[in-house]
Amino acid sequence: MRSPPWFFTTAGCKAFFCALLLALLPCAAFAGNSDEPVLPTPAQRIVTLAPSLAELVYAAGAGDKLVGVSAWSDYPAAAKALPQIGGYGKIDLERVLQLRPDLIIGWRGGNAPRDLERLKTLGIPLYISDARHLGDIPRQIETIGRLAGTPAQAAREATAFRRELHVLENRYRDARPVSVFYQLWHRPLLTVNGQHLIDEVMRLCGGVNPYAALPALTPTVSLESLLAADPAVIVVNGNTEYWRQYPQLDAVRRNRLYAINPDFLHRATPRLLEGARQLCAVLDQARK
Prior knowledge:
By secondary structure, the protein is of the alpha/beta class. 36% of the residues lie in helices and 11% in strands. It is built from eleven helices and ten strands. Strands 2-1-3-4 form a four-stranded parallel sheet, sandwiched between helices. The radius of gyration is 19 Å and the shape is elongated.
């Protein structure tokens, strides 16, 4: 069995696959609840087309209604035991039909547009989700709660998310800015721009992204430009050893190289708050 892209794993391996997937995100033009279907009764058999969506269903209190998930759906642990309907790049439509769902939840930023279009023709209610901002996450949990008939638990989870987000916003509102480079991949050198959800987390913590103004959501940058930017902190999704060969960088000289589990920053789920807490703690260390 081949190793999964780290975008979908807890171990955080195979970072290049994540970079490729993230490069698809500029096509995601909608956010939040723009594609919420109207159901005659709450959904009882739900299929999700991305690992983050399975997490959101559990967060909304509807995990017991999941009958199928995408490959690499590994959190919570119960999701790993569910039937799989293919990977994010290609959905097995025949397998989906065999599971007899009364609600399918897809991801505009990651699922192939051709698959989403074909699913629409099947007559099965389809909610197309896409979180582009931190505030979209609790709204999507509430939407899934409405669709699945679990609005009370979804509301509690959404409220808890907003409360913790508010705590972080207040704590770091006036934090001294710290320049930080977020590495998606090192060959080629990929990062995020100012429109990316990760950049929003960085800004929440008082981080300043030297590549925020670039037009591409996940731009390729040169080593020369990074040496010129000389960030105070470098955050990676895997091993930090690659950067030891560049002692001219302030982050390397001062040992400000940090690795954060990509599941905490690349999945738009409640666990993103854990990624935010870890990133904020990293920048606090740099301020000291």
